[in-house]
What does this fold into?
Amino acid sequence: MIVITSPTSMIGRQVLENLLGSGEPARVIARDPSRLPPHILERVEVVQGSHSDPNAVNQAFADADSVFWLVPPDPHAESVEAAYVDFTRPACDAIKSRGVQRVVGISALGRGTAVASNAGLVTASLAMDDLITSTGVSYRALTMPSFMDNILRQAEPIKNQGMFFGPIAGDRKLPACATRDIAATAAKLLLDPDWSGQDHVAVLGPEDLSFNDMAQVMSEVLGKPVRYQQIPFEAYKARFIELDMSEAMAQGMTDMAAAKNEGLDNAEPRSPENTTPTSFRQWCEEVLKPAVFT
Ligand SMILES: NC(=O)c1ccc[n+]([C@@H]2O[C@H](COP(=O)([O-])OP(=O)(O)OC[C@H]3O[C@@H](n4cnc5c(N)ncnc54)[C@H](OP(=O)(O)O)[C@@H]3O)[C@@H](O)[C@H]2O)c1
It folds into this structure.
C-alpha cells in the first residue's frame, strides 16, 4: 500500500497518475476528496482530512509500505518552522507507530551550503528532513531547485506586458526542474521496494539557465518578446505582504530567494541520475504557451 499526501497538489496529482497504471494499491489523504478527478477517486482509498492531523495520518498509515510526503504551502503560518516542521510532527509519530517502511518527501537543494542556515522555506524543509530521518524510517528527500512551473504564476504579466519579475540576478545560472519530472522520480521510488537507508535524490532538470536565458526561450516559443526584470528584495517581500502572506512567510520567501542568489541551488554536482529530461523549451511549449494563450 502506497499513501499519497497532498493528492491535489501540482506534484501529488502527477505522482498519482504515474502510480495508477502500476496496479499497486494507493490511498490518499485529502481535505476535500471531491477535488480529485473521478477516474482517480474510483481507483484509490480515501482518508478525509489534513495530513497535519494525527487522526488522519494514523488512519492512513495503517499497513502502508510507502508514503509520499508533501507539505503544502501555508501563506499564513506564524513561522517557517511551524509551516514545515510542526506540520510534519504528527506524521512522524504515525510513521513510527504504524511501522511505515519507506518515505519519499518533497524537499529542496542546499544542504551543506554556507547560506542554508538562513534560507527561509528551504532551511525549514531541511529541518523537516531531519525530523523524518530521526524516526529511523528509510527516507529519500527529493531535493529540488525552483520549479519551472512557478513561472505559471506570472502568465498574466508575460501575456500583457511581455515581462516577468524576480529578485534574483538575471544572469545567474541556476538549475530548474519541471514538476512532471519530480513526480516521475517520486513514483519510481514509491514503486521500488528494494531501497533502504536515508539519502537525498536531487532533481535538477537538464541544464542550468539564467532568467535572461529563460526570457530568450520564452520569446522564441511564445513568438513575442519577453524580458526578465530584476526587482529589489524589499519589493519582492512587500508584494507577498500585499497578497496577505504572514510577515514570517514573506520573510522566509525573501530569505530563500536571497540564498538562491548566493548559490544555494548551485552546489549539487550534476550526474546522469539527477539530470532529468524536461527542458525549459519543452515545458514552455507544452505548459506555458497554452496557459499564456488561453
Ligand atoms: N515551488 C518551488 O519552486 C519549490 C521548490 C522546492 C520545493 N518546493 C516544495 O514543494 C511543495 C509544494 O508542492 P506543490 O507546488 O506541488 O504544491 P501545491 O500545488 O501548492 O499544492 C498544495 C496542496 O496542498 C493542499 N493543502 C493546502 N493546505 C493544506 C492543509 N492545511 N492540509 C492539507 N492539505 C493542504 C491543497 O489541496 P486541497 O486544497 O485540495 O486540500 C493543495 O493542492 C512545498 O513543500 C514546497 O516547499 C517547492
